[in-house]
Write a structure and sequence with these properties.
Number of strands: 18
Oligomer: single chain
Strand order of the largest sheet: 9-8-10-14-17-18
Largest sheet: 6 strands, mixed
Structural class: alpha/beta
Distance between the termini: 112 Å
Length: about 1000
């Protein structure tokens, strides 16, 4: 027993000496060198190293040569050598000059390691340099360089370090420098590597979710985040942080209920409040959760519900403020809350805290805080202070290496937001202070904002993210037009009108132009057919699975949602990688894809002279309506104010006219008062939109904007009407004097005109299709039948295609043979495609709009050609006729236009589209289509053929059937040139006689049917 007690006492004493006894490391190193240090580690493995010990090791490291440093590294390893070289430890012993000497020392050691090709050691020292640079102002600017160099040897270091280095570098560029493209490049090195398991990639998925949230690419952010949330391998901290991140994504998307659910779930996982006093993870997670919940209530404008979250943040404010960058998570929404509540005392207290930290290293993430402070003082009309804060925010985000316009490479979305707020301030200021300096700053800032808008758009990879970005575009473009308009007014320099033309062009059909640019780049950029096919297949797969994901979400199919999200994530990563390969390997492809393809005024005027045409382009802003007109030798701008009553009257006129034009139920009981109102309204809009434009031209080409997209300009009345009876037939329509057509932009129009003839020799004749909707088919999925349940037979549509079949050469699928599979198989082989089908318009989800073919139970094709499928088609047809209901109608997307089915076929390569703006009458359509094709056969240009077809219809349309609802829905978009049609061998006069008899019969039946309807 005594023996055991003595033994225990001996062990305790020995343990005390080994663990608690401190030695003089400096003395050991001086007397015994590296050997003494090695003996210390062997004899006392539990020795408690202190900061002064690490400092002594650093001083020794500084004095010895390369071989001793190598020996020191092998003895100590990263676990001890890293801390000994850490500036966070040594800065308490070193002055500023010695700090810089320490960087020079490590740089010298790096050179020696590089020469010896010791890449693991070199990478470790580089990591130490990068981390230490955070602690020294003079070296701070070098952090990015260190991480770039570290990632340059990524393939040569141990696998266990690769992921760690990628996280360090990626997080630095994302969170500190906010260079999102660089961060994504480093994160994706791990994702694209087969050397790591899914579990090992979880941290990267979490970082990518944060990165795409910051880039405003919200769907991709959710996809990466969903991997973390549904994984069983995540730790509780990562899970909680991803919940808050997903909450922020939903908040940005406007889905506040889903956002709040995420944050409340995260709130239940938070540790006890006591941990805030000492646990940094508790501080940051409380910050994320409560600031997120506060921001949701601020977005909802529910200030009462915000109170408990404000109280929690105020209660622990000292803890939150002490956490560095994380403090801004709390301060930003609190400042916004105090601003809304007009709580000056609380706001100024927070601003005081911020001012006390202004002399610290300027991080890019502080730009948001400076912008919020600018908002506060702008609201209180302290314009000088507000402008100073906005400019300081922008200074943190800009790339100072550029000479002319500032290029923002850090947190581009925040830079765009700040620029827009600065424009708000300058616009307000210039109304009361018309100084030259203000005007120049306003104009220069609009240029910067436009450039940044293009810069961000090119970096985004999903169409939904780009459409979200375009919400900011109209405001920036309108400010730009106002700035240029003022300069033109003062100088009368025609160059400013050219700049306005370019700007209006760039404000429209942005995504369509971009897509056609990419098609051009692939065709003429030297990209091999195999890669072009791979890119097209991946893009098509993404659209298909996006549609499937929407359906699964609508039906709340959890397993299917997860599966489709995984597939989309993989497909998008593959597409990103392929596009980066194309851009890097095929310079011509990159040049064509991103070139600014806005044509010059002179190029447009040359075409207008040849066609004897006038081109009119509109921009509908919040404050002004801009109407820029071009003829062969003139360029003019007309600006009308749209403020207050003027704007209400303008919007009301357009909406009311569209309703009066398209409502067939009103025709039978059309009173004289309704008729007079229609005439007055139509003439009023003509005076506003065209009266100062019309001239001796034969053609008017319209590039619409906003609500103008929904109006057929042919129905505008050129004269004031004063008649005794209701008579639509003889009204002075624009149609009767001008051939009217429509273009998305002048640039797209000229692109179509100069496009090489790519219709192959076997692409001749007409492909015509007319479906049936009443045939019995069994075993059809319910969701397919629901879409068809209210579709009636289109007898007139069948007669259209029957007429074409009897008269012209081509391929014609009627009734049971008019299937989606037959269309896809045949569509690329004909110069004209005529689809006489029902159309489905989905304004909530434009990609789910479609054309309905005959249902035959096909298990591969669902016999609805959805909008998301169109870009995968290869039409290259001269003319696509959509003789279906509302194929030109759809939801208006800012900066893009009406997202209609007709527009979708432009992506597929159609040179021109004849489409409809509202539900059309079956019988009148049949008549107009027969006239139209007969006119094309005579060699008329498409716009002339359509004009004359409508006039022929009107000539015989007495009474109610002369109403525009029967004939004005058709509009022609795109190339208006001649298209050849070959008739069948039967003599032309015989078919002309038959056509004349058919028209007489149809017109007689039409009067009865129109009145009955």
């Amino acid at each position: 027993m005594l023996y055991k007690i003595i033994l225990i006492l001996f062990l305790l004493v020995n343990l005390f000496v080994n663990c608690l006894g401190q030695v003089d490391v400096a003395k050991i190193l001086k007397n015994e060198g590296v050997t003494g240090l090695e003996n210390l580690i062997i004899q006392k493995p539990s020795y408690q190293w202190e900061a002064k010990d690490f400092h002594q090791i650093y001083l020794f490291f500084k004095q010895v040569g390369y071989e001793d440093r190598q020996q020191l590294y092998s003895i100590l390893g990263e676990r001890l050598l890293g801390p000994s070289l850490s500036m966070s430890i040594n800065r308490q012993f070193l002055d500023g000059e010695e700090m810089m000497q320490s960087f020079a020392l490590l740089e010298d050691y790096r050179v020696q390691l590089k020469e010896a090709e010791k890449w693991n050691d070199w990478a470790f020292i580089t990591q130490i340099l990068a981390e230490n640079a955070y602690y020294h102002l003079d070296a701070f600017s070098q952090i990015g360089r260190y991480y770039d160099e570290l990632m340059s040897v990524w393939d040569w270091v141990d696998k266990k370090k690769q992921r760690y280095y990628a996280v360090l570098a990626g997080n630095h560029f994302m969170a500190v420098e906010q260079n999102y493209e660089r961060a994504a490049t480093y994160f994706l090195k791990v994702i694209n590597s087969t050397a790591f398991t899914k579990k090992e990639k979880l941290n990267i998925y979490s970082s990518l979710s944060e990165l795409y949230l910051r880039k405003k690419d919200f769907n991709r952010a959710l996809e990466y985040g969903s991997i973390v949330l549904k994984s069983e391998m995540h730790d509780s901290i990562k899970y909680l942080q991803q919940l808050t991140r997903s909450g922020n994504i939903y908040k940005e998307l406007g889905n506040f209920r889903a956002a709040e659910d995420c944050f409340l779930t995260a709130k239940d996982l938070l540790p006890k409040e006591e941990k805030l006093a000492y646990d940094p993870y508790a501080k940051i997670n409380y910050s994320y959760v409560y600031s997120g919940l506060l921001e949701i209530q601020l977005e909802r404008k529910k200030l009462k519900k915000a109170v408990p979250y404000v109280e929690m943040l105020e209660k622990h404010l000292p803890y939150f403020v002490a956490q560095g960058q994380g403090a801004f998570l709390v301060l930003n929404p609190l400042m916004q809350y105090y601003t809304i509540k007009n709580d000056t005392t609380s706001y100024l207290y927070l601003e005081k805290i911020l001012k006390e930290n202004e002399n610290r290293v300027p991080f890019a993430f502080m730009a948001k805080t400076l912008t919020i402070r600018g908002d506060y003082w702008f609201q209180r009309k302290n314009l000088t202070l507000a402008l100073n804060l906005y400019n300081r925010a922008l200074d943190l985000l800009k790339n100072t290496s550029t000479n002319e316009l500032v290029v923002y490479t850090q947190d581009e979305p925040q830079a765009l937001e700040t620029l827009t707020k600065k424009l708000d301030l300058l616009h307000w200021q210039r109304q009361y202070n018309n100084s030259i300096a203000t005007e120049e700053d306003f104009y220069r800032t609009t240029q910067q904002a436009r450039g940044l808008l293009d810069q961000i758009r090119q970096s985004l990879t999903t169409k939904s993210a780009k459409q979200k970005l375009l919400d900011n575009a109209p405001k920036i473009y309108e400010y730009s037009l106002e700035a240029i308009g003022r300069l033109y007014k003062d100088s009368k320099d025609i160059a400013y009108l050219r700049e306005m033309f370019t700007l209006i062009e760039k404000s429209k059909a942005i995504l369509l132009s971009e897509a056609l640019n990419e098609n051009l780049a692939q065709s003429f950029g030297g990209v091999p057919d195999t890669l072009r096919t791979e890119e097209r297949n991946l893009a098509n797969d993404i659209k298909i699975y996006e549609s499937k994901l929407l359906d699964a979400q609508r039906k709340d199919k959890t397993i299917a949602i997860a599966a489709f999200q995984d597939i989309l994530l993989r497909k998008r990563a593959e597409l990103d990688q392929l596009k980066k390969h194309l851009e890097a390997s095929y310079p011509k492809y990159y040049e064509l894809k991103f070139q600014d393809r806005v044509v010059s005024v002179e190029a447009v005027q040359e075409i207008l002279a040849d066609k004897q045409a006038t081109f009119v382009s509109y921009f509908v802003g919040e404050r002004n309506l801009y109407m820029l007109s071009l003829t062969s030798d003139q360029i003019n701008i007309q600006i009308e104010t749209l403020v207050g009553d003027n704007r209400n009257s303008f919007s009301k006129d357009l909406l009311t006219l569209k309703r009066r034009l398209s409502n067939i139920l009103d025709v039978q009981s059309y009173s004289k008062k309704k008729f007079d109102d229609f005439c007055t309204q139509s003439h009023r809009l003509y005076q506003l939109l065209l009266s100062k434009v019309v001239n001796s031209s034969k053609k008017i080409i319209i590039s619409a904007d906003g609500l103008l997209h929904y109006i057929p300009f042919e129905t505008l009345l050129m004269e004031k009407v004063n008649v005794e009876t209701v008579d639509f037939k003889d009204l002075p329509y624009l149609l009767k004097k001008y051939e009217v057509s429509y273009q998305y932009t002048a640039s797209l129009w000229l692109e179509l005109l100069k496009k090489e003839v790519i219709v192959k020799s076997d692409r001749k004749g007409i492909l015509g299709m007319a479906a049936t909707y009443q045939q019995p088919v069994t075993n059809i999925p319910q969701d397919r039948m629901v879409l068809r349940q209210n579709l009636v037979e289109l007898e007139g549509a069948k007669n259209e295609v029957l007429f074409l079949k009897q008269t012209f050469k081509g391929k014609f699928w009627l009734e049971t043979s008019a299937t989606e599979a037959n269309f896809k198989q045949s569509s690329g082989n004909y110069s004209i495609v005529h689809l006489a089908l029902h159309g489905l318009v989905n304004n909530k989800l434009p990609m789910k709009s479609g054309l309905v073919f005959t249902e035959n139970g096909d298990t591969i094709e669902d016999n609805i050609l959805f909008a998301y499928e169109l870009s995968s088609l290869d039409l290259n047809t001269d003319l696509l006729v959509l003789s279906a209901c509302s194929t030109g109608d759809g939801i208006y997307q800012k900066g893009e236009g009406v997202l209609s089915l007709g527009r979708g076929f432009m992506y597929a390569g159609a040179a021109s589209i004849l489409t409809t703006l509202w539900q059309i009458n079956d019988q009148s359509t049949q008549t107009i289509m027969q006239y139209f094709y007969q006119n094309l056969h005579k060699g008329m240009e498409k716009d002339v053929a359509l004009q004359q077809a409508k006039l022929s219809y009107l000539a015989a349309a007495d009474g109610p059937i002369g109403h525009p609802v029967f004939w004005a829905a058709y509009v022609l978009i795109g190339d208006t040139g001649v298209v050849a049609i070959d008739s069948k061998t039967t003599s032309a006069w015989w078919w002309g006689l038959i056509g004349f008899i058919v028209v007489l019969i149809v017109m007689g039946g039409l009067r009865k049917k129109a009145l009955a309807e």
